[in-house]
Amino acid sequence: MGETQTAAKTVITDDTRWYLLQEKAMEVRALRAFSLLREAGIEPILIKGLAAARFYPEPGSRASIDMDLAVSADDYEKALEIARSAAANGLAIDLHRELRHLDTVEWSDLFANSQLLELEGGTIRFLRLEDHLRVLCVHWLTDGGSFKERLWDIYYAIQNRPPDFDWARFLDPVSDTRRRWMICTVGLAYHFLDLNLDDTPIKDEAKDLPAWVIKTVEKEWASETRFRPLETVTHDPIMLLKQIPRRLRPNPIWATVQMEGSFDAKTRVFYQIGSFFQRILPSYKRLSQAITVRPK
Amino acid sequence: MNNPNGLKNPIARQSGLVVQEMPDEVLVYDMDTNKAHCLNQSAAFIWKSCDGSKSVMDIVQQFESNGRGKVTEDFVWLAIDQLNENGLLENKIAPRFLGQTRRQVLKTIGLASMVALPVIASLVAPKSAFGVSSCVCNNPAQCATAPNAGCPSTTNCNQLGLCAPNTPSQNKGKVG
Fold first, then answer.
1. What angle (nearest 5°) sits at the alpha carbon of residue B168, between those of residues B165 and B171?
2. SS3 assignment, position A126
3. Residue B160's CB: how many other CB atoms inside 10 A?
4. Residue partners of A201: CB distance under 8 A and separation at least 6
5. Which of A10, A13, A17 to substitute to test the interface with B, most B CBs within 10 Å?
6. What is the CA radius of gyration of chain B?
7. 3-state DSSP call for residue B27?
8. Does A128 touch chain B if contact means CB atoms closer than 8 Å?
9. Beta strands B120-123; A115-119: pairing state
10. Which residue, among B164, B168, B160, B171, has the nearest Cα to B135 in the 3D structure?
11. Rounded to 10 degrees, what is the CA torsion of A67, A68, A69, A74?
């Protein structure tokens, strides 16, 4: 082998190998899940995970452990039965009844605009990129901006968008409040990850980020305790204790989004109070259920 | 199918596996056991040759006629034993080198072979895979002391301790 060829050879690490296989395994699982649901006459749409990974520059660089599938509200119960059946064992399906809080566009509209993509061994349905980008943005915000690695989903979706990306389709079908959420999330990818927005119609708006949003994200990323659902930490009293203050004074981004609030409002306090009261009962129910059913 | 010695011919497992061909190796993920393996070229060639119709001797001949170099039956057996151990064969094959350590076997075959020995390496899940995160840093201190600690990009952790390049303001020393 010549010197040039040797130098050009890419070094593959075990981590890369692992993630490559994981991504391919996830494709196989997704094809299986689609096939199972299609047999029952249900056509799901895959969101997040593989749908985000396809815009990453290198295969295997976006890890996911479960598969988010959205189905129409009419098909939800039937799909849930299938997702919980023995045939779906190991598929790790996280089933969504349409997109709920993640998007306000009608399911029929989203579905009509969705795309079938050919993978090795079958087809998978994804949202069109503009719609999916809204989902990625809102999902990232509902985690309070705490998942720094997931901001790359937004970065790569925009950086590697097709030339015919329709900014109006991305921003116009939702309320002004949500429109601002999207722009701010893209703006955070610019602020923290140096996303190039020069050739976009939102380049000025996205750079005009409220200071509190940046501060919240920085605080989250510096925190050693990530937000976790209470029912998942009942086995760990220390973690449980650490999670409680996060509920008492909710993450401002998360609270604002939960209350469908404006990023430009003067204060977060009212959203945080609203969020606290809105979550207290469901949280209590989930927690007590988790404690009751926890295996001894 | 049995070979003339009454032994079963090896058959490569097909179901429940995800196979990723790479330029110099083949990666295999076992979806039943969630284990991942990396087969070097010799091991991969032998694995693919295991179609149930070929005896070990046939595989030796195929290996050589493919221009991969002269090998012995033990060479192919070394691969088959590893494929067997890792659950990559459809049928269980009695181990050839029972009672010998891998080191002894490698020494014997290695001395007689000019070809890269068949190797199947197990891949261990990266630490970050357990946290659903592709970056192991949870705070700036970790990021600062462990650059490239699993960041999902080709860039380093920046001065804020985030998996990202420095922003223009950070480059000027104005963090935040």
1. 75
2. strand
3. 20
4. A167
5. A17
6. 23
7. strand
8. no
9. unpaired
10. B164
11. 140
In chain A, residues with a C-beta closer than 8 Å to the C-beta of B144 are none
Q: Give per-residue pLDDT as tens, B110-160.
A: 666 667 889 999 988 775 544 433 344 444 444 444 444 444 433 334 444
Q: What span, in angstroms and rounded, lies between the C-alpha atoms of A137 and A152?
A: 11
**Is the per-residue pLDDT at A246 higher than 90?**
no
Nearest to B164 among A17, A19, A193 (CB): A193
Q: For chains A and B, count residue pairs whose Cβ atoms are closer than 8 Å.
A: 95
Please say whether the beta carbons of A220 and A141 come within 8 A.
no
A76: left (phi > 0), else alpha (psi -120 to 50), else beta? alpha
Side chain identity at residue A69, one-letter code: L
Residue of A nearest to B18 (CA): A25
pLDDT per position as a tens digit, A59-92: 888 878 789 999 999 999 999 999 999 999 888 8
Rounded (to 5) percent helix, strand, coil in chain B? 30, 15, 50
From A22, which residue of chain B is nearest by alpha-carbon distance? B29
Question: Measured between CB atoms, does B95 come within 8 Å of chain A?
Answer: no
Residue type, A1: M
Minimum distance, in Å, between the CA of residue B2 and any CA atom of chain A: 33
Residues of A in contact with B18 (CB under 8 A): 21, 24-25, 28
Going by pLDDT thresholds of 50, 70 and 90, the confidence category of residue B98 is: low
Q: For chain A, say whether B144 makes contact (Cβ under 8 Å).
A: no
- Structural contact between residues A78 and A42, judged by C-beta atoms closer than 8 angstroms: yes
Q: Under a CB-based contact definition with an 8 Å cutoff, are residues A148 and B151 in contact?
A: no
Query: pTM, whole model, 2 decimals?
Result: 0.78
State whether B123 and A65 contact (CB < 8 Å).
no
Integer CA distances (angstroms), A97 to A75, A118, A156, A249, in order? 8, 24, 27, 29
Q: Is A61 on the interface with B (CB under 8 A)?
A: yes
Listed residue (B114, B120, B11, B119) closest to B68, CA to CA:
B114
Burial classification of residue B21, based on how many CB atoms lie within 10 Å of its CB (0-12 exposed, 13-18 middle, 19 or more buried): exposed
A192 and B133 in contact by Cβ < 8 A? no
**C-beta atoms surrounding B28 within 10 Å:** 24
The mean pLDDT of chain B is: 73
Q: What are phi and psi of B29, to 5 degrees?
A: -115, 125
Q: State the nearest Cα–Cα gap between A171 and chain B, in angstroms.
A: 26
For the cut 50, the answer to whether the pLDDT of residue A165 exceeds it is: yes
Structure tokens at A188: 């955070």
pLDDT of the residue at A279: 81
Nearest residue of A to residue B152, measured between CA atoms: A61
Spatial distance between the Cα atoms of A39 and A216, rounded to a whole number of angstroms: 45
